[in-house]
Amino acid sequence: MAKKIIVGNWKMNPKSAREANDISEKIFRGARKLKNISAVICPPAPFISLIKGVLGAQDVFYEKDGAYTGGISAEMLKSLSVRYVIVGHSERRSAGDTNDIVNKKLKVVLNAKMAPILCVGELTRDHHGQYFHFVRDQIRQALKNVSKNIVHKIILAYEPLWAIGKNAKGVLPGEEALHMNIFIRKVIADIAGATTAKKIKVLYGGSVDAKNAKKFISAGKMDGLLVGRESLNPKNFLEIIKNADAV
Ligand code: PGA
After folding, report:
1. What's the pTM value of the predicted model, to 2 decimals?
2. pLDDT tier, 232 (very low <50, low <70, confident <90, very high otherwise)
3. What is the pLDDT of residue 247?
4. Residue 58 C-alpha to ligand 1 middle, in angstroms?
5. How far is the CA of 231 from the centre of ligand 1 (A)?
6. In DSSP terms, which residues pair with 118 in a beta bridge?
7. Exposure winner among 36, 55, 127, 223, fewest CB in 10 A?
8. Residue 55 per-residue DSSP state
9. Is 19 a catalytic residue?
10. Closest ligand 1 atom, residue 91 Cα
11. Per-residue b/e over 39-77, b at no fewer than 16 CB within 10 Å?
12. 185 with 198: CB under 8 angstroms?
């Protein structure tokens, strides 16, 4: 059985390098004992080189190099042994990342031989299922001009915006996670074929905690989780990991 990927997205936390070290050490020490899980931490960029463990980045800039003050390239991340890069997170999208920019970022990550974690998800739900179309368009546009042979390297993260963060309006029921999981694979099948659609990993994110983690993996048949707030608390994050490992 393929390992479940549990990704911690620390966002703009914690405040210091020492805390980042502390939290990550505790997490990886606990996670190493579990056979069915691969734990990944996406710290803020200044802490990446300090952390020993499987690393992801929260964002990337799509240009190779040059006069782009503040930019961080895919090659730079690769040189720090980063394996995963989140692209299209809703917080980056609301800071200006269009589908076109997400597409460019996805491509530089693939070119640098890292795995993009492509975040998609609707802002609100409607009764007519328009949100499915919204997610389909986000995927199609992010994958524009990506060679079919490498689509299986992309990890999809379904994060309904209304379920993210401390102002979340609710938690997604397990069977609805399954519906979206199946739908995402259908969209991928149309783009890159049925074999890729079967192979690709789909994660769930949005207010994941120790209590609901199991539900997304078992009822939602997700290949892993993208965890925000709870990934900064080693005890809670390890609890999520353990619960996912036990499914
Ligand atoms: P949350 O964040 O777990 O705090 O809801 C998830 C995310 O934004 O990736």
Report:
1. 0.97
2. very high
3. 86
4. 12
5. 9
6. 87, 156
7. 127
8. B
9. no
10. 8
11. bbbbbbbebbeebebbbbbbbbbbeeeeeeeeebbbebb
12. yes
The CA-to-CA distance between both ends of the chain, in Å, stands at 12
**75 in active site:** no
Rounded distance between C-alpha atoms, residue 19 and residue 50, angstroms: 11
Could you report the per-residue pLDDT of 151-196, keeping only the tens digit for each?
Answer: 999 999 999 999 998 888 888 999 999 999 999 999 999 999 999 9
Instruction: Output the six-digit token pair for 243.
Output: 């619960």
Q: CB-based contacts of 218: which residues, under 8 Å, 6+ apart?
A: 174, 247
Residues 152 and 196 sit within 8 Å (Cβ to Cβ): yes
Among the options 19, 25, 63, 89, which is catalytic? 89
**Rounded distance, CA 49 to CA 8, Å?**
16
SS3 labels along 134-163: HHHHHHHHHCCCCCHHHHHHCEEEECCHHH
Q: Which amino acid is at 111?
A: N
* DSSP tag of 83: -
What pLDDT digit, counting tens, does each position of 82-96 carry?
A: 999 999 999 999 999
Which candidate, 182, 107, 96, places its Cα nearest to that of 141?
Answer: 107
Residue 1 has pLDDT above 80, yes or no: no
Give the active site residue among 91, 159, 179, 230.
159
pLDDT > 90: percent of the chain: 93
Cα–chain-centroid distance for residue 100?
Answer: 19
* pLDDT 10s digits, 125-157: 888 889 999 999 999 999 999 999 999 999 999
Q: Distance between CA atoms of 151 and 148, rounded to whole angstroms? A: 5
